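User: Assemble these into one structure.

Assistant: Restating your components, then the assembled model:
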Amino acid sequence: MTAQPSTEVSTAIGQRSLGDPSLRFPLSPPLLTGCPATSSEEMQYPLEIDYDYARVPRDLLRQPPLPGLARWAPLLPPLVPELSMGEGGTALIESEAIGRWLGLDLPVWLKDESRNPTWSHKDRLNYCIVSTAVKNKAPGIAVASTGNHGASAAAYARRAGLPCVVISTRDAQPAFVHLQAALGSTFLLVERDARWPTLQRIIDETGFMPASNLTRFHTGNPFGPEGYKTIAYEIWAQLGHELPGTVVLPTGYGEMLFGVYKGFRELKALGLTSRVPRLLSAEPIVRAPLARAMAQNVAAAEVTGPGSIAAGIACTVSSYRAAVALRESGGRPLTFHDTVLREAATQLANDGLWQEFSGVAGIAALHEAIQRGETIEEPVVAVLTSTGLKEMPATVPPPPAEPVSLDRVIATLKKA
Amino acid sequence: MTAQPSTEVSTAIGQRSLGDPSLRFPLSPPLLTGCPATSSEEMQYPLEIDYDYARVPRDLLRQPPLPGLARWAPLLPPLVPELSMGEGGTALIESEAIGRWLGLDLPVWLKDESRNPTWSHKDRLNYCIVSTAVKNKAPGIAVASTGNHGASAAAYARRAGLPCVVISTRDAQPAFVHLQAALGSTFLLVERDARWPTLQRIIDETGFMPASNLTRFHTGNPFGPEGYKTIAYEIWAQLGHELPGTVVLPTGYGEMLFGVYKGFRELKALGLTSRVPRLLSAEPIVRAPLARAMAQNVAAAEVTGPGSIAAGIACTVSSYRAAVALRESGGRPLTFHDTVLREAATQLANDGLWQEFSGVAGIAALHEAIQRGETIEEPVVAVLTSTGLKEMPATVPPPPAEPVSLDRVIATLKKA
């Protein structure tokens, strides 16, 4: 439990289909393979959580955006307050340097999600998922992930006293291997193609709740993306109860994209704002299934393509919820090249902030869009997702064997 | 600049000697080798910053404890708002599990300083130091550090556009080597004994401002510890404007210990509270110069002894400011063994939180004190200082070569 959580309870009333929003299902059991009514072999539609907005306290969203998601409890699924690790309440940092590099008129606002309990945005999602698992008496948590998602799921599961199995691959970053060992997860390293069948079999045989997706097109756990709504609440509060023109987000399966869109939609529905900012997704150009789906005007797309240094978001399928977020916010999909991503990471480090490559995707994609002459509505918020500490090489190069000449160093420093 | 910083200016009026508090020096130039009047070859006394408390806005400390230290500007040295990276505003997390492990009556409150811009408490200090360097037109920043202190100084220097030289040793953690490369610091690896002479020579020849200490007994940069006062302001606010009974802190040279003490002293001086919580320092028992100084009733002590896995706080000298903080808060020095520290880190990971070893020092020291039968005034706040991601081994062990039997894994999960 974090300090001073809200004592209000959730106003959640059911799971609503995104495939047909007129369809609502009970809150329990969680529907973990998409909408059962509108999904087919060809396409799977996610669900979202529906609330009784009339029962939401009028001043809830006007509170200071401090850490601890339980403070937004009426607008989230039923939470277990004791599970909170003070997720959220992350800093919004004004960067003139990044604004200049992008060629914008104004500084850019950076929402630094590396300031979370496991140092990524995923904590907002997993606090909701593990709370849902506890409320539904799931015997454990299972997640297929090579990175932040699995790290965060494992931490919340551990805190809840639930066993957690993380299905990863042999090329998992050392930082995550190390972290999973510290958290005492069951950590399975399988071939890439074996991840989903392994997850499915574990779910089937153990009854563990999945914290990741089980369908061909991404549907996921409908309770997770709700946690990301709080990013929108916080941005609005941190800008002095004003909206930005644009929010750009690193985008894999689009859970954060949808959550942030839904948060802004709720601010409007509750009468606190009169519009929704344009949301822009940022995908590696080598795959970019969401950009493909939008271009082809289909619900979701599957692509092939080489990998990206933005490993956390180089997905081969998109989700319908991501398309909804872009379309309903008047936004659009952006892409980036790895070369620009590296340059964006360097520009950000020059401003003191060191992110993993996926975390800088929004800035890289914006840079390419502006270079192409696209118009971006300011002010811009770019969501940064995770610390650069997680992308350490397995072996750090040893320091130079040659003794360094202090005279030469000092001469160089004097010229700097 | 972070969102909505305070527009109030600093009420700082000078540098006050801790050796003789009746002595006050101007705010500039910064006195970087201790109090010039009371220090001698045998003992060096630090300075602190003095304020015109009558000019501090009455409601300043009643604002919500959000990120961005500039919001406390009247009670801090003159800051450069644009340098802020939204430091501070870190979560305070209630832990029943740690309270139980310690044998306390109440849950323990954990102040998680890994939620800062470079994922350690040091950002509060370095924002103040680099601001001071900019205000005093220093041409660069120089710091002797193998860890968090240097990482943080480098980030703020980079953001300020100042060159930064970090003097480290060949056993620096890979995470820090990696981070310094990302931030573009000049990173010198020297023998342990060569660190201070190298720093001194660089300072002398370049005029760079030191972010670390230049004297035998620690005096340091007097502007830095002021940043730690905000931890006290935040704790008081996060507990609903109530004080804890005890605050326990990982302690090396005692800059954070003194800063937190001073923050509580100011809350009392400004009429907001009627007492100061007991502050307890936590040092590795293999060295523990502060515990030695307190036992011998001297201003500071120098010790020898083997190293500790709590590398960030295994110091061989103490500072007078640390003794002041313990004495004036009615506190005392605690120590811990590395075996207990490992157990404390595991207990904390079982609660979902993964810290570097130094970060868990407070919990380990408390555990030993309570096992000895010492009385601890509750509620207790333990300050955690940095992420476990920074203590990754240089080479992570490869995953097992044997294929894992999924049947066996599932059988184990079912029994969990």
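Residues 1-7 of chain B have pLDDT under 50 and may be disordered.
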